[in-house]
Design goal:
Blueprint lengths: L1 H58 L7 H12 L5 E6 L2 E5 L10 H4 L28 E4 L2 E7 L5 E8 L4 E8 H52 L14 H64 L5 H33 L7 E4 H11 L1 H6 L3 E6 L4 E4 L1 H18 L5 E9 L2 E9 L32 H12 L3 E6 L2 E10 L4
Helix pairs in contact: 1-4, 4-5, 5-6, 6-10, 9-10
């Protein structure tokens, strides 16, 4: 298919060239044929009309007047005309404009008597003077007016227009046919030469035009071929100012959009591959997290079921361990479900206009038991009057994860400081805890579910659960920033909430 298209485009220049030449040849042939077939009838028709008009004009001349007067009139009438005028009276020649008997001569200068041949000799061979004794040889076209073609005494073929006058005079207008035919033939030869020249010039013009016309088409074809090969660097540079330029610009825009779409697809594909890898790692980590409590539950359940723990107190210990591990599994599954809902956008935020300081104090009252159990020392640095626009449940969930993270990874001092302040157009809540800093190589990874600082370990203090990944999902859903930074003697985890602009 590609080869077929290639051949088709290579033939555009040739076909356009051939089409132009065929058009020129057709027009030239039409002109030549029209000239051959129509010029003679048109010329004869025009000559006939002119001769008829002239014969009527001549018949209106007063030949009884002085000969100088009507001879001058006849001379003026025949000046510049292709035909000759012959006037006969009876069998005698009265006037002739033919050169054989003296051009435009008076009657008395023609011979001894009016109407006698010069030197009493008939016209010689080649004479254009004719002698018509019977007008029936001509076609009668009016009262006393005849028109037709005859052969003269010299054998020359002529067109003749005749009119009889009442005094017996006969007016003859003659025009040889052969010069007309020769003129038509010469006109055809000249026309043919001009047409050959025109065809040659047209061929050169057609060649340049076809190449110039097809050049932008070939350029567009080349650009489209590059796009098909996913090469978007070649651009159409067409400046014809017509539809081809517009088409070239459309191809360039299409190339840019396809390139942008392809780049986006590549980025999304890379991100998808990364997400798939993360999901696989997540599933693997979740499996490891669930395997340990399941193994404990199964082991202690098998001990109880086998009857080896006959003492009642021992059974209570085993049942307590089973209940504790089941609670851990339940909490882990809830966190996994919550994280999935947040990341998929299924958990919509229910934002309200609330006081940030009051929300933090309420949270601490709810978690007083947890704080006392873990012997946490919490101090507050809250800027009063901060009204935020946030989901109170998710707000407490983020704080709970930060406090739980501080209780787990903090040092023996267990000192925690919660701070709320306005930063530009948002409100930032920070949770500081004393403890060892977070190294830069894991600072971004701790927000991923089940991240382990040491991948060789499974359940250690260096293993992060789903708490921080849930914080990440909540903040992403709210469109707010979050993060961590190392400070003197500890670590700060922070998150932003939107400020209520109506406050």
């Amino acid at each position: 298919m590609a080869k077929r298209v290639e051949k088709r485009f290579k033939g555009i220049t040739r076909r356009l060239f051939i089409y132009i030449i065929l058009v020129v040849l057709g027009v030239s042939a039409l002109v030549l044929i029209s000239n051959t077939l129509l010029l003679r009838p048109l010329y004869y028709s025009s000559l006939r009309t002119s001769m008829i008009q002239a014969v009527y004009t001549v018949s209106g001349i007063d030949f009884t007047a002085d000969s100088d007067i009507w001879t001058e009139e006849l001379n003026s009438l025949t000046a510049g005309q292709p035909y000759d005028i012959v006037i006969r009276k009876g069998t005698d020649l009265f006037y002739s404009s033919s050169a054989e008997v003296g051009l435009r001569q008076k009657p008395e200068s023609i011979g001894e008597g009016a109407g006698q041949w010069p030197d009493k000799r008939p016209p010689e061979q080649g004479s254009r003077i004719i002698l018509i004794r019977n007008l029936d040889e001509l076609e009668k076209i009016g009262e006393g007016v005849y028109f037709g073609s005859v052969t003269g005494i010299s054998g020359m073929h002529m067109m003749v227009c005749a009119k009889e006058l009442e005094d017996g005079m006969l007016i003859l207008l003659t025009q040889p046919v052969e010069p007309v035919n020769q003129s038509i033939q010469q006109a055809n030869i000249l026309l043919a030469g001009c047409m050959l020249l025109a065809i040659g010039l047209s061929a050169l013009f057609a060649l340049r035009l076809s190449r110039r016309f097809t050049k932008p088409i070939k350029q567009i074809k080349s650009s489209v071929g590059s796009i098909a090969a996913l090469d978007f660097n070649e651009k159409c540079d067409i400046r014809t100012g017509d539809e081809l330029q517009s088409l070239g610009e459309d191809v360039n825009r299409l190339s840019d959009k396809l390139k942008a779409a392809l780049d986006t697809l590549r980025e999304q594909n890379a991100q998808l591959e990364k997400d798939i890898a993360v999901q696989r790692q997540f599933i693997s980590n979740a499996s490891h997290e669930l395997r340990t409590p399941l193994a404990l539950i199964k082991g202690y359940a098998d001990e109880i079921n086998s009857g080896f723990t006959k003492e009642y107190g021992q059974k209570d210990i085993y049942v307590g361990i089973i209940a504790e591990e089941a609670a851990k599994m339940n909490r882990l599954l809830k966190e996994m479900l919550e994280l999935t809902r947040m990341e998929s956008g299924m958990a919509a935020l229910q934002n309200e206009s609330l006081s940030v300081s009051d929300s933090i104090k309420t949270f601490l009252e709810k978690y007083d038991g947890f704080i006392s159990e873990n012997r946490l020392s919490i101090s507050l640095r809250l800027e009063e009057g901060l009204i935020g626009y946030f989901d109170p449940v998710r707000f407490e969930q983020v704080l709970a994860n930060y406090i739980s993270n501080a209780a787990r990874y903090g040092d023996e001092n267990k000192r925690i400081e919660i701070k709320a302040e306005k930063v530009k157009e948002i409100i930032r809540v920070s949770v500081f805890n004393t403890g060892k800093p977070i190294t830069e190589d894991i600072a971004d990874s701790i927000w991923d579910g089940f991240f382990k600082a040491d991948s060789a370990r499974t359940r250690t203090e260096d293993s992060y659960g789903l708490g921080l990944s849930i914080v990440k999902a909540i903040q992403n859903a709210a469109g707010q920033e979050f993060g961590t930074r190392n400070v003197t003697h500890g670590v700060v985890f922070w998150f932003d909430v939107a400020q209520n602009k109506q406050a």
